[in-house]
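User: quick one, fold this
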Amino acid sequence: MEIKKELLEKMFNFHGHKCWASTLGFRAGLIALRGLGAQRIGSRGLYAIVETGYFHGAVCFLDGLQYATGCTVGKAGLIWKPRGKLAFTLVDPKRENK
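Assistant:
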């Protein structure tokens, strides 16, 4: 999957620095959107259950995922479970069994 440089730069600006983990979260979020056949939704549509830890890379991953999907804690679209891994489930409640 090719990511446009301008979009990646915007994500880095959102995150605050360039790093591997935010890039991974961003890419994973885009792949999940594609798999669901969904688009980034800025307010209550999709939600993500994220299973990361509290270490630096985990939070960077989370930022990349938030930027890609539009799911944020502030919009009640992101549930963060500290499990010590880089994993998430992206849910589109409008789609049944997909």
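User: anything notable?
Assistant: The chain is about 45% helix and 15% strand.
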